[in-house]
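Bench log. Compound arrived from synthesis this morning; before running ITC I wanted a structural hypothesis for how zinc ion sits in the protein. Inputs:
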Amino acid sequence: MRIGLGYDIHQLSKNRKFIIGGETIPFESGLLGHSDADVLVHSIIDALLGALALRDIGFHFPDTDEKYKDANSMLLLKKTNELIKDKGYKVINIDSNIVCQKPKLSPFIDNMRKNISTALDIDFDCVSIKAKTNEKMDSIGDGKSVASWAVVLLDKI
Ligand code: ZN
C-alpha cells in the first residue's frame, strides 16, 4: 500500500466562480487560478501523485500551458486516476479538510463527495471531506483565501 499527502491554497477574488469539489457554490467571490482553481481537487491530485512519487500537479498540468487555462479540475482528477491505474494502483480511500472561513460549505459536502467518487470510480463512502474555518485568523480566516489538505491510500490492483 502507498500513502500520499496533498496541500493547496488559492486566493479568493471577485468575478470568479467559486468551484470546490466540482460544485459551483453561490458566493460573492471565487478562487483565483489558471485553471478553475478547485482547491480541494488540486490537493487530492497532489496526494494521488505523491503516493506514487510521481512529482506534483504543476509537473503534470503546468499553469504555463494555455490548454489548462480555466481547465475543469475534475478532468485533471480523472487523468490522474488513469496515471495511477497505469502504474498498477487503485484508490482505497481519501480523507480531506477544506479550510474556508466563508461561505458555509456543509450543504455542499455530499455533492462534492459524489463528484469525486464518481470521477475516481470508487464508492461514495471512500471519500471523506471535512470543512473547517480558521477561527478568523490569518488570510484564510480573513476570507482572503481557501486551503485544502488531503491524504489518500492506494493499493495494488
Ligand atoms: Zn490549486
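What the model suggests: The chain is about 30% helix and 30% strand. The beta strands are 2-14, 19-20, 23-24, 29-31, 89-99, 127-132, 145-156.
ITC booked for Thursday regardless.
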